[in-house]
Amino acid sequence: MENTSIIQTKELVKKFPIGKSFFTALNGINLSFDKGEFAGLIGPSGSGKTTLLNIIGSLDTPTSGDVTVLGHSVGKLSAKQAARLRKEQFGFIFQSYNLLAVHNVYENVEFPLLLLKYNANERKKMIMDALSWVGLTDKIKSKPPQLSGGECQRVAIARAMVKRPSLVLADEPTANLDAVNSHNILQTMLKLNEELKTTFLFATHDEKVINYLKRKIYLLDGKVDKDVIK
Amino acid sequence: MIRFLIKGLIRDKSRSRTPVIIVTLGVLLTVFLHAYITGFMGDTIELNARFTHGHLKVMTTSYAENMSQIPNDLALIEVGDLLDKLNEQYPDVKWVPRIQFGGLIDVPDENGETRSQGPAMGLAMDFLTGNSGETERLQIEKSIVRGQMIKKQGEALLSESFSQKLKVEPGDVITLISSTMNGSMSINNFTVAGTVLFGAEAIDRGALMIDIEDARTALDMYDAAGEVLGFMNSGFYNDEEALKMAKTFNKENNISEDEFAPLMMSLSQQGNMGQYVKLTEVWSIYISMVFIIAMAIVLWNAGLLGGLRRYGEFGIRLAMGEEKDHVYLSLIYEAVFIGTMGTIIGTAIGLLLAWLLQTYGLDISGMMEGAAMMFPSEIKARISPSDYYIGFFPGLFSTVLGAMLAGIGIYKRKTSQLFKELES
Question: Within a domain: residue A149?
Fold first, then answer.
């Protein structure tokens, strides 16, 4: 059988200095994620889920152990190589959307493509595809302050998905949304996961999100407590 | 990408319009104030130069020693030859003879009896040959309040306030009672051609102006002059150059051996003008620097705040994979754009305001009443070459420096904190 694992962590340890001692945020994590997974890191505050998401997203490096993402050992990447990996392969979705307020929907979604230096025609097609996935083609001229929270998060999803990344990392993506909008957002992400085979990895403790996950990894005190596949 | 950034810059008024306005105001004030200081300080020097000191002055050594008493008995003789020599040796300086003298003006009534009298400060200069540039230098035509310019020998100009004090009208005859170069009493009649107001209280109090040939006749000073004044062709006093010329001239003329040998003095070597020249230089630099530094701090902070308020935007850009160098450079490019725009607009407006003040001036004669030193009664700016680029220091340099300092935060930023920071 073909090895489709895109993320592997081996004995991953992450410690943060606190005064003269250290706080161990992750303690010997061994996980593997295949392409196309819709998985979530679940746990209370301080369980290490965001730290693990950071390391997988090449925003941080492990203290020891090894993390390989899409064939790259995260701990050995330089800052420039890490930025390049994020730019080319990852999409990020944040709890607070973090859209650029002065740019309209079209331009917000366009930004990752500009970093990747796509030409104007390519960009236009990719942006319109992404906006049609999230159902916002009629809002391309609108600016973030003119959109609802749900619409903003859909723009954020389009921005994360527009470059067809291998991996989308989402930290509490529904925390600022009501139940209806949360379900709409999650259904959109699930649809994209199924249609484009994009791997989604969430960090959450929101029941609404947890119910949609196909794989639930429970973290407790920096260790994997349970790894449940639906 | 550049278009994207420019769009953001233009649409975000707090990133474009506000900083441009701040930079514009800062640069405008810097340029205008610099031109104003240069104008005010320089005008005072030039005013004194035009009326009494010249940029350079040649006198006999003895006259120079008692210059405040205007000792015409120690005046230069054979001035024609001296002028030829000076013109040949210093072609970049315009040399003109002057005679300053004191006297009593007596105004007779219809019976020839004294109607009024007053002490006068006399100034004799070339009014009639038309090639000395003296009337233009002192802007006599513009300064005439009543009557007209001296057109022929035997005519005089009186300062307006002096003429009012003496109750003299243009066309009236006045008598100058003075002493000749040889110490004899001299009594000469002049017809008042007009009255003048120079706007310098010290000279407007009791001035009498006559043609130099009339003065030579009246004071027995044939081919003589109390002083020969030199004015640099550039129109502005250059202390370093003036001192150099004076030193060379004096070395050639053995002033230590002959008390009647011509002695050349720069404006700064005369009376307390040296202190004023130094003061002008120091104050111009001091005031300009204080203001430039103050503006630089303001604009630096504006640049710093501009960078800090975009913390969130930079965070998302870093998370999405934009390199720190790229984010930093885009911040600097924006600052260069803002700084350049603000500096160009601010310099243009500052120069316009300075030009208006240079051309039309601001009347402050009310504040100069009773002044002993000749201060201009009109504030005028002077646009100097440095005004065209001085605004770039606070405008461009400080704005970019502020942005550069703010941008250091980009490098210090830990990507591992981005999720946390962007959630807050």
Answer: yes
- Let me know if B374 is exposed, middle or buried by CB neighbors in 10 A (0-12, 13-18, 19+): buried
Residue B312 near chain A (CB below 8 Å): yes
In a domain, A135, yes or no: yes
Residue B263 three-state SS: strand
**Closest-CA residue of chain B to A50:** B419
Residue B422: exposure state from Cβ atoms within 10 A (0-12, 13-18, ≥19)? buried
What tokens does A45 get?
């505050």
Q: What percent of chain B has pLDDT over 70?
A: 92
Among the ranges given (A60-69, B5-14, B117-126), the one the predictor scored with the smallest mean pLDDT: B5-14
Per-residue pLDDT reduced to its tens digit, B372-384: 555 566 778 888 8
Count of structural domains within chain A:
1
Question: pLDDT per residue over A36-69, tens digit each?
Answer: 999 999 998 888 888 899 899 888 889 999 999 9
State the pLDDT at residue A69: 93
The CATH number for A132's domain is: 3.40.50.300
Q: Beta partners for B104?
A: B119, B177
| Arithmetic mean of pLDDT, B267-282 | 85
B321 contact residues in A (CB cutoff 8 A): 83-88, 90, 112, 115
Are B412 and B388 in contact by the 8 Å Cβ rule? The answer is: no
Strand A167-171 vs strand A199-204: parallel, antiparallel, or unpaired?
parallel
- Among chain B residues, the shortest Cα distance to A14 is held by B416
**In chain B, which residues have their Cβ closer than 8 Å to the Cβ of A50?**
419-420
Cβ-contact B403, B302 below 8 angstroms: no
Bridge partners of residue A9, in order along the sequence? A31, A67
Model confidence band, residue B228 (pLDDT cutoffs 50, 70, 90): very high
Q: Could A171 and B419 be called an inter-chain contact, meaning their C-beta atoms sit closer than 8 Å?
A: yes
Q: Which of residues 169-188 of A touch B (CB under 8 A)?
A: 171-172
Q: How far apart are CA B72 and CA B98, in angstroms?
A: 11
Bridge partners, residue A67, by sequence: A9
Residue B184 has phi, psi (to 5 degrees) of -80, 160
Alpha-carbon distance of A63 to B350, in angstroms, equals 58
Q: What was the ipTM of the complex prediction?
A: 0.84
Q: For B3, name the nearest residue in chain A, comparing CA atoms only.
A: A114
pLDDT for the residue numbered B422? 64
Which residues numbered 113-152 in B keep a CB inside 8 Å of some CB on A? none
Residue A1 has pLDDT above 50, yes or no: no
Tell me the mean pLDDT in the region B178-184: 90
Say whether pLDDT at A146 is over 90. Answer: yes
Instruction: Please give the residue range of the domain that contains residue A51.
Output: 38-61+76-229
The answer to whether residue A224 is domain-embedded is yes
CB-based contact B423 A115, cutoff 8 Å: no
B355: which 2 tokens? 């030009």
- Whether residue B415 and residue A96 make contact (CB cut-off 8 A), yes or no, is no
Distance from CA of B320 to the nearest CA of A (A): 6
Contact B105, B166 (CB under 8 A): yes
A94/B419 Cβ within 8 A: yes
Provide the token pair at A164.
């067809």
**Among candidates A85, A87, A100 on the partner chain, residue whose Cβ is nearest the Cβ of B8:** A100
